[in-house]
Write a structure and sequence with these properties.
Layout lengths: L3 H7 L7 E8 L17 E8 L1 E6 L2 E6 L2 E5 L5 E5 L6 E8 L19 E3 L4 H14 L4 H19 L15 H13 L6 H8 L3 H12 L3 H19 L4 H8 L4 H12 L3 H11 E3 L5
Antiparallel strand pairs: 1-7, 1-9, 2-5, 2-7, 3-4, 3-6, 5-8
Helix pairs in contact: 2-3, 4-5, 4-6, 4-7, 7-8, 7-10
């Protein structure tokens, strides 16, 4: 029989994973990208149940497929991208109060370990648990409590998956690209240009553009746009602010231009995105 003292051997006293939201992304639907974004008050655990794609987190890129368990620690920039024009199938859980002994709050895996791990023979169990958590979380009080307890078991099960070698991302081999990314991450909602970035880093525009795209797959300005759209999506999900208000907050004073960039990047307008996402969301809207 497990006691509270046993629980405290795994988690810091008084802490247990709390499900904030659950979202199932249906495989095969029209693809709507969720560009680079982060969560400052929670972590995320995902399971890919069908399809192929890429998980980009900070400076690392991972291939994901059926059976991949995906970890996102608090504060980490990340995005999931399908390899096709339709959505990859995932379960996504936003979680707070995860406090493993020896790790910071809302950190699922230690620094330096792999963000994607293969569930292997445990995939049927993972898929069944994810389906049950997502379904029960939309139910009555008792069902929601069951979902919370199952979520705790799911976190423990995922945490125990064997670590795997991290991919050698080319971003880590270029100090200039890392410095450029850090500068953009700190200033992307401001009036930022390719010239201002290169001036801040003390290099030429052509050289910066070449290096950054070579190691990230995006030009510096494309990365700025993806960061802004990613932040806009977070505000659309988490608030009732208008598209005009959000456009200004992420760095655009022209709402029509913002709407154009948003639809080009995501596939739908900002308001359509809010409506579609909230229809599939279970739990709290706050994803900041």
């Amino acid at each position: 029989m497990y006691s509270l003292s046993t629980l405290n051997e795994v988690f810091e006293p008084g802490y247990f994973p709390t499900l904030v939201y659950s979202a199932k992304q249906e495989y095969g639907k029209q693809r709507h990208d969720r560009p680079m974004h982060k969560h400052d008050s929670l972590c995320e655990l995902l399971l890919c149940y069908r399809g192929f794609g890429t998980y980009q987190v900070e400076s690392h890129s991972y291939t994901i497929q059926r059976g991949s368990v995906i970890f996102g620690n608090v504060g980490e920039l990340h995005e999931v991208v399908s390899d096709y024009e339709t959505e990859i199938g995932t379960y996504c859980f936003g979680i707070q109060n995860v406090y493993f002994r020896g790790l910071p709050l809302n950190t699922l895996i230690p620094e330096g370990s792999s963000h994607v791990r293969n569930s292997g023979s445990l995939f049927p169990l993972f898929e069944s648990m994810c389906e049950q958590v997502d379904r029960l979380y939309a139910g009555n009080v008792q069902e929601r409590l069951t979902a919370q307890l199952m979520l705790g078991s799911l976190v423990l099960l995922a945490h125990r998956l064997p670590d795997e070698p991290r991919p050698r991302g080319s971003v880590t081999n270029s100090q200039l690209a890392i410095r450029a990314k850090e500068y953009i991450d700190a200033h992307y909602t401001e009036d930022i240009t390719l010239e201002s970035i290169s001036e801040a880093l003390g290099c030429s525009v052509p050289y910066l553009s070449h290096v950054f795209k070579d190691v990230s797959g995006y030009s510096p300005i494309q990365y700025v746009i993806r960061r802004r759209i990613g932040l806009a999506q977070t505000w659309l999900i988490s608030s009732d602010l208008s598209a005009t208000q959000i456009a200004i907050m992420v760095g655009y004073d022209n709402t029509n231009y913002f709407n154009t960039l948003f639809k080009r990047t995501v596939g739908v307008s900002p308001i359509q995105y809010r409506k579609q996402y909230l229809e599939s969301l279970r739990g709290k809207r706050d994803q900041k």
